[in-house]
Amino acid sequence: MSEPKIRLDRSRPFSTSHGPCTPDDPLYLVHFWQGGMLGPHRVVLPFDAHGDLVPDDGQVGIKKGIDIDSKPIDYKPLYDANMKKFLALKLQKAKALASVPAADTIKEDGDPDADDIDVGSPTDDVNLEAWLRGKVDYPAAKIREAYRLRTHHSTDNLRQIVTDLVLDRGLIPEADLAPGLRRHLDDKADEQAAA
């Protein structure tokens, strides 16, 4: 099994990064931040303009550089210890979630990891954007629960979820919808044509 990819999920809260940077700045590729809780600490991870995770550059300690005004500056590492731990736990949970067949469910025992660290609710790991694009598959119950928590609407109908996220909320362009999910929009178009 390939290593799961952590991607920005535009269906969950995220922040943007602005400001001029030089290529030497660890923040140069960062456009978005998104994360969760690691115990009592709020942790965010960096994502590039395409929504891909910006990897740890391996920098430890302060790095001397020149800013955009040609003045000396001290660059801090992109990743701190909490970010590295949070990412490791997210990857571990993503592997576990990806290894479950879509027809099965995940048993949540309420016991966080051995370190008593909680990396968010189980639905935080459900990336609705990646699911719509066909990059990952989740059990239907997880999709419904993530949709309910993020939109405050409850439905058991996947067609309604796909229609709402793609056509009503514009989470992804219709052209990017996975072929396996496209039938949900085609069914909706057939219904509208018959009415």
Number of strands: 5
Mean residue pLDDT: 81
Distance between the termini: 46 Å
* Largest sheet features: 3 strands, antiparallel
List the total number of helices: 5
Spell out the key features of this protein.
195 residues; two-stranded antiparallel ribbon; single chain; alpha+beta; three-stranded antiparallel β-sheet; 32% helix
Describe this structure in words.
The protein is an alpha+beta fold and 195 residues long. The chain has one domain. Helix content is 32%, strand content 12%. The chain has 5 helices and 5 strands, in the order E-E-E-E-E-H-H-H-H-H. A 3-stranded antiparallel beta sheet has the order 1-2-3, covered by helices on one side. A two-stranded antiparallel ribbon has the order 4-5. Strand 4 and strand 5 (72-75) form a beta hairpin. The longest helix has 18 residues, at 81-98. The chain is elongated. The N and C termini lie far apart (46 Å). The model is unreliable at 101-119 (pLDDT under 50).
Layout of secondary structure:
Elements: E1 15-16, E2 32-38, E3 41-47, E4 63-66, E5 72-75, H1 81-98, H2 128-132, H3 140-151, H4 158-168, H5 179-194
Helix pairs in contact: 4-5
What would a concise description of this structure say?
The chain is α+β, with helices and mostly antiparallel strands and 195 residues long. 32% of the residues lie in helices and 12% in strands. The protein has one domain (15-154).
